[in-house]
Request: fold
Amino acid sequence: MPEDHHEDIEGLKARARRIRRHIVAATTAAGSGHPSSSLSLVEIVTVLFFGGVLRYDPDDPHDLDRDRFILSKGHAAPGLYAVLAEAGYFPVEQLTDLRKLGSPLEGHPNMCRLPGVEASTGSLGQGPSIAIGHALAIRLDGRDARVYVLVGDGESEEGQVWEAAMYAGNHGLDNLTLIVDRNGYQQTDAVDKIQPLDPLDDKFRAFGFETKVIDGHSLEEVSAALDWARGVTGKPQAIIARTIKGKGVALLEAKQGGWHGKPIPPDEESKALEEIGAAS
Ligand SMILES: Cc1ncc(C[n+]2csc(CCOP(=O)(O)OP(=O)(O)O)c2C)c(N)n1
Ligand SMILES: [Mg+2]
Reply:
């Protein structure tokens, strides 16, 4: 049976540090990938996997009663791989195989090659549609599993996100929680310069969601929001998590608009790891 995994606040902080370290090490070793997009989601996935939220069993990744986590912003694969390895789906040592020829740790997640990956994503906008498919199937099967989907804010410009939102709202999919990683930046510039999204929470409400806006780097706020989401009945929930692209590494935080899809250079790696802090 899948189970939740509940660690205390010190345990969660240590997990978050380890996940950040994995993200930096794997992308620098690969010489490519998206560390800044991965670093903004660390507290969200830490609480999902270790804060008593997701019920999962890494030894039985297809159990029909498992909760699902779908990373819609698939380019943040290093963040997903880091938390899956921490959760025991595969060895942590495998993380530095990221993007190597033949490795299942592809540049974007491939559900056919790596246990724990619920959906092959990377073409932005598709995750919420996949998530509603899971949520509906779970409901039709009479199971009580839940589905969580993490979407980028730039990604939220995709029309498909809103088609899925309309469906979820109309069908009252209360076993679906959509989380927006609202880091304010997309590939080339600030989201607000390219396609302003606000008031994002009002938009989701208009589509039939219950909503909450939180600090996506506060383990306490993420945890409280996910507790709240599980208590909502009759409607899907949208959590707008305000985050910082590159959170935890000064080099990346300082160049918000200019570090998308770029690894930390090898000569900056030890400084970045020092800023993140020790693994335990
Ligand atoms: C359909 C589609 N169009 C374009 C891209 C290229 N692309 C990859 S990441 C990205 C920016 C995404 O920004 P956001 O959703 O805010 O994610 P962040 O990196 O900020 O977390 C773009 C345009 C893509 N992967 N898929
Ligand atoms: Mg963004």
Notes: The mean pLDDT is 97.
